[in-house]
Amino acid sequence: MAEQLENALSLQRVTIPDIWQQQAVQALREGSDVVVQAPTGAGKTLIFELWSNQGRNRGQAIYTVPTRALANDKLAEWRARGWDVGIATGDLSENLSAPVIVATLETQKNRLIQGEGPTLLIVDEYQMLGDQDRGLNYELALALAPAKTQLLLLSGSVANPQSVVQWLQRLGREAVLVRHEVRPVPLEEVHANNLNYHVPSEIRGYWPRLVAKALAEDLGPILIFAPRRQAAESMASELARTLPTPNPLALSAEQKALVGENLARMLKSRIAFHHSGLSYAARAGVVEPLAKAGQLRVVVATMGLAAGINFSLRSVALAADSYRRDNQEQLLRSDEILQMFGRAGRRGLDETGFILISANELRLLDARPGHLSRGGSVDWNALLGVMDAAAAQGLDPFRQAVRVQERLFTTKPIALGIEESIQHPDAPCGLKTDAERARHIHRRVRQMLNSRGQWENLPAASERPACEVQVMENAETLRCHSVLAEPTALEKPGAGQVCLLQEDERGKVYGRATTIADFLNDDRVLLNKWVRRLTNWNGRQVPREVWEQKIVPLLERKLAEHKTPVVRIVQEEQRIVALLSLADVPMRVPVDSYGVAFWKPIEREVMPPDCVNCSLVPICQNLPTTTGVALLWRRLGLIDTAGVPTRRGKIASYFSQGDGLAVAAALEKESYAISELIYDLANLDASFRFAAEESRWSGRLAIVCQTTYGPQSIPGYLESGIPPKYGAGAEQVVAGVHKDPASKHGWVTEILGAGDIDRVIIEWRSTLRQIAHAPELDWPRWGQLQEAARGILNETASPTVTELPPLEYNQTRRVDHRLILRRH
């Protein structure tokens, strides 16, 4: 009875608003946007609950959280209070007309961009603005939220919340900052070396001994963050195997079935691991409720899932100072450490939360809010959607895209590569992007002086006989002479040495001198090899009379056929030389518009003709030539020259990052069956875990993408022509589970967990939902894909959604976490 009374009083204390909470609610009721900076567990959510007057209608409110798991938690919590609450998390869409909707922000972005926002939009953990993957969705949603929608932004790990307030004010919104720095449960450091409690010698290993001492010192329950899944499971297994269990936990048969034999064995010792490889039912239906109820002594969770954990324990320890993300080792940031340490101390249960300083020496001084900023990324999908809507209204798509970019969370807008061009739309060149104009003006036009003394663009070379080719001597007098009088011009045509053939009042004429035979002492002639080959003559030596009567006429005829006729044959002491004319030898030279061919004409380089009298020349000369986003869209076939999204660009706008590029490429391949594509879409978010021994970049969808977009890599959108989160193999698992939900556990491996399968099915269904609810297009293939998606979605609810078992009363009692150890 006393314990129940204590819990009731504790809950009552939580619901009494502090002054800072009252200030935030008052600002909301006065019509302002509110940015709240307060520590984890301080009661930021209470601000919304007070505003909504416990769920009674003040207009619709959408409460967004970073993960589906947190959304499900909020949904269950508020429905348990009798609130009318809906949910929208990509894979789930239920009761959307309710006064309160719990959602992931991505599901609301398009609605906000279209000006259909709710009365109040709450963004819990708004530091996601700086996330490298999802920050763009958060930024565009806030930047384009309609003025009628109030914003409530909540976080405990942003060092510069005033910058967010200034951004909102720059957008014309009335925004205020409410800041509260005091944690409801203060934190205290406990160095592992200072834990002097004697533990039995049979408890071996660094972490088992540290945990045993901490539990004995009444610092439990303990939440340990491990760098990766395998480490979390191994540590939890070692702790369960090593530590004595004076009070084993009894699980129901249903709970054992959800978590599996291995985890059930650990839970009996009141120890668990927690990572995304666990099924949703195991995490949210067993481990998390037991942790919240104080039934577990130790939970070992992965660092990457820290933001998705919705429970706190008395003490927190970090087992490493880095973790693996996207196949790269990443050092913990100060705000990530702050978020993990923030899970220490349970409000209403603990007077103090404890940070166990382990061998890596990470301390409270290392836990600080992070400076919120954005990179140079561009939300292609949102901007293409904005441009498509602008084109439908008869507006300039490029101009509308730039206006959106000017609303971003940055002091300097991220350029699309069209900013100067839309300021000066009437350029004679007609080019619409800055890079095209810059390259155009720097592309020099080569011109030649023609036979009439006029400058004209240098034409491509064509063949003319040398006797028709001229050399211009003087640009003023236009005096010319034949190229046959230019020895250097004749170095390539023909064979032999250049020689003077004749000279008279008309000038010099050059040709070629080549040895055709040698005299022998016995009045015989030795034929050169090329002569024998040309005349097809057998034998190297011939009598002089044969030479003169047969070979010479034959050689003259053959050389004439090769357009190097013999002018005369000269006999020297030891050799016979043929002088050849080059008049008919073809030369590749430019020919002017009057038909006169010139060798090395007089040239100059000038600006393109449309730039000569253009007033924008100084501006265009200073534009960057690097490929901007708009020009990249053009090359990928997403927009036309005027910035209007193509069919491919429209489809890209319906999705996130590079997923739409893959869908469009697949639909353009007419032989790609929709029945095959519908499951291949599961690969878009599968990453590496489903590929097993195969390459994660294999599969028909990957091949189609690489064929369409080439090998180029664009951060966030394409990696070697494929969406960066793509992973082959998921299509087989999803197809198998879709046809037989009971087969899911048959796909589980050491690398691939049940939670991974749950996640990829959820992502797949979310993609299908995006397709099903996207606009229609005048394209049968798109209509067929939408029909297939709707058919699957209308079959049943997601097979990953499992009814979670209720906890029995004897499991929810508080337990004493101190170990009973025999002193040796």
Quick summary:
This protein is of the alpha/beta class and 824 residues long.
Q: What does it look like?
A:
- The chain is α/β, with parallel strands linked by helices.
What descriptors fit this protein?
824 residues, disordered N terminus, 29 helices, elongated, 8-stranded mixed β-sheet, alpha/beta, 30 strands
**Stretches with pLDDT under 50, minimum 5 residues:** 1-14, 798-804, 806-812
- Number of helical segments with 4 or more residues: 29
Radius of gyration: 40 Å
The count of DSSP E runs of length 2 or more, i.e. the number of strands, is 30
SSE diagram, text form:
Blueprint: H1 2-15, H2 19-29, E1 33-37, H3 45-51, E2 61-64, H4 68-80, E3 85-88, E4 93-94, E5 100-103, H5 109-113, E6 120-124, H6 135-143, E7 150-155, H7 161-170, E8 175-179, E9 187-191, H8 206-216, E10 222-226, H9 229-242, H10 253-268, E11 271-274, H11 280-292, E12 298-302, E13 315-318, E14 322-325, E15 328-331, H12 334-341, E16 353-357, H13 380-392, H14 397-405, H15 419-423, H16 434-442, E17 445-449, E18 455-457, E19 462-465, E20 469-472, E21 480-482, E22 497-504, E23 507-519, E24 524-527, H17 529-535, E25 541-543, H18 544-561, E26 566-571, E27 575-580, E28 586-589, E29 597-598, E30 603-606, H19 609-612, H20 617-621, H21 629-635, H22 647-653, H23 659-668, H24 674-680, H25 700-709, H26 730-739, H27 754-773, H28 780-793, H29 809-812
Parallel strand pairs: 1-7, 1-8, 2-5, 2-6, 3-5, 6-7, 9-16, 10-12, 10-13, 11-12, 13-16, 20-29
Antiparallel strand pairs: 3-4, 14-15, 17-18, 17-30, 19-28, 20-21, 22-23, 23-24, 23-27, 24-25, 26-27
